[in-house]
Amino acid sequence: MKALESFMQKIKPKSDGKFPLAYTVWDGTYTFLFVPGHTNHNGVHIKDGIDLKRTMSMVVLALIPALLFGMYNVGHQHFLAIGEITSADNVCSMFWDKFFYGAKLVLPIVIVSYAVGLGVEFIFATINKHAIHEGFLVTGMLIPLIVPVGVPLWMVAIATIFAVVIGKEVFGGTGMNVVNVALVARAFLFFAYPTKMSGDQVWISLGEGKAIDGFSGATPLSNVIEGGVEAIPSLMDSIIGFIPGSIGETSVIAIGLGALILIATGVGSLRIMLSMIAGGFLTGLMFNAVGGNPYFELPAVYHLVLGGFMFGAVFMATDPVTASQTNTGKIIYGLLIGVMAILIRVANPAYPEGVMLAILLGNVVAPLIDTIVVNSNINRRLKRIKTA
Amino acid sequence: MELFKLFIKSAFIENMIFTFFLGMCSYLAVSKTVKTAVGLGAAVIFVLVVTVPVNYLLETLVLKEGALSWMGEEYATIDLSFLSFILFIAVIASIVQLVEMSVEKFSPSLYGALGIFLPLIAVNCAILGAALFMQQKQFNNVGEATIYSLGSGLGWCIAIVLLAAIREKIKYSHISAPLRGVGIAFVLTSLMGLAFLGFLGFEL
Total domain count for chain A? Predict the structure, then answer.
């Protein structure tokens, strides 16, 4: 550590030197590695010593289980699809083969997302002459986890540039964005290149192998519309995550581990997670009672474990920047997203992935929810004064 | 049930702002604070709910081909629909005049905040747009036309209030100078439109 720090100090470029970009890059890396030593001399309002980069590292830490499981599952689905294993086999058979196969496909996406996103961020920080605040840490990890494994790398790069520039930097950078940056990237991909983001070709990598007979590469959610309720995998598989889907979204257990870390460190809001799950579950129950197309009949608990619902609830909706800021607002916001996610999924067969759009909608409505909550608080207190 | 579907469809799926981009000028200009946005939204809803049914009656009783047959056999072949633009606008302008006078009388502060955009509702594309869509959709009765106008007005109102709330939130962001004001509102509208795409294709 000491050696690293003295090395960093040695190569420190001048902030007003010939290459301002070099200083931004150095400053971003240095403050990522070490907590900055400078302190304020007059009034500070900090309750906690952890700065933004440390907070965001917690989220990255919480995403690691989902990432590792995602790599494993990519391999698992690959070998399942080419028939080298069957679903009856022990999950540990060919464990490392599966893992390395997945890692080979997932790591390039992670690297591209980080490299492109950080590049854009460094350029903007240099132009706007401010330090790197959060440095794309979380977004860079989220984007790979919510795309299908078959997505071409150049699309990841374009979506990342679009999301960082239009979603974040035009609003002034970290903490100023209105909608979730990673979701903007995914929505961009979804609407710009629909064939690469849905259907039955993209979710499972076949590699050199050839698919076995009767193989379907579609996600369970899109299978439901054709095969009816019988087409869904067992509840156990959906919870552990042995189903096709975006890289990081399949396993409820891995996401749950992340949720524990987020809740324990106080980074993610338990209110939002619970109210979103409650909203989704109740809407699911309601549709079960009504009946109609196969989505209506999908048991409510499946609505929660299939697709990106859990991932959205834990990592996307809880984004502290774009969520509601007030406590009452958080509950309303969570409920709204949960209800909308299932509503879009059920009533709109074109978008089985309603969670993404529901959270974007929640982000858009969040400021209004806050305004209403704050104003009703003010009115209530005014009334109390008048009656007293 | 049919009416409810029509209402949801006109408010969210065929949202005036995010699907048809109608009424953008006042949407961008009056969305700086939530309070004035609500005021203008309410005014637009009111004008729509009054003008569309009136225009509907005008359309079915006077303008449409054969609409004049109630006056006698010899009028049954007359088609006055080429007059619809000018008559619709005339109806809208007179109703807006009425709204303006009542807002000035009952809420002078709102009148001041809305400024020129209150009389400009008369040329708000969303209002004439709704009247022309009404003509195109060939509703069966006045009830449907009223529900349709209520839905589209509400959709417009929701859009402007949402934008106003977001703009209040980003008031203190470090937006780069060239984008401040209307520029960022355009970017915001596009992102909101992305979120509203979720409604597109709803099967009701």
Answer: 2
